[in-house]
Amino acid sequence: MIRVLLADDQALVRAGFRALLDAQPDIEVAGEAADGEEALRGVRELRPDVVLMDIRMPLLDGLAATRRITDDPGLAQVRVVMLTTFELDEYVFEAIRSGASGFLVKDTEPEELVRAVRAVVEGDALLSPGVTRRLIAEFAARSKEPSALASLAGLTEREREVMALVGMGLTNEEIARRLVVSPLTAKTHVSRTMVKLGARDRAQLVVLAYESGLVRPGWLG
């Protein structure tokens, strides 16, 4: 059973999400929070698998709450999905840098919300290819001169190649086609790379790919 914590200052939004998620046979809403401080307390007490976190909340905003969650080793298994009103919210980029596994627009289709919750539990970043590429472009515009990461030395050539393709915004299926392997093989390479680098999920691989210089802005096309 996937346990979810809903953190949003709008009761109506929480009620809608709860009704949808509780109707699923493999998902349950473990708790709710109306502000960032309450969300932190709920996460520490309930240890949910996923937190649906609104970016703008009173007392402590969702971005700060996410940093505290992802910086706590004891909460390493908790995945945070940011909720935003607009797809290109100015805080989305920083949310990914802070350790969020992705983000959802609040008016997303119901089936997409359910799919998203299941996806992040599997370790996938909740970013559509189009959104991923926009985030990458934003990261490229803001990134400093890349620095070599010693941790990349432990990767095989194929894993570096796969990491670069993830950094360019390709899905597992696109990577599989590019490398002429099966989607399962591509997913395995991605998973092994994440384990070796200690990355929480695919979103962090994108950040690491740029920070290490493995991917350069000019590759976006």
Automatic annotation (TrEMBL):
The name on file for this protein is Response regulator transcription factor
| Domain called HTH luxR-type: residue spans | 148-213
> Where does the record place the modification 4-aspartylphosphate?
54
Keyword DNA repair annotated:
no
> What Pfam family is a match for this entry?
GerE
**Start and end residues of each Response regulatory domain:** 3-121
Alphabetic keyword roster: DNA-binding, Phosphoprotein, Transcription, Transcription regulation
Q: Which organism is it from?
A: Streptomyces gottesmaniae
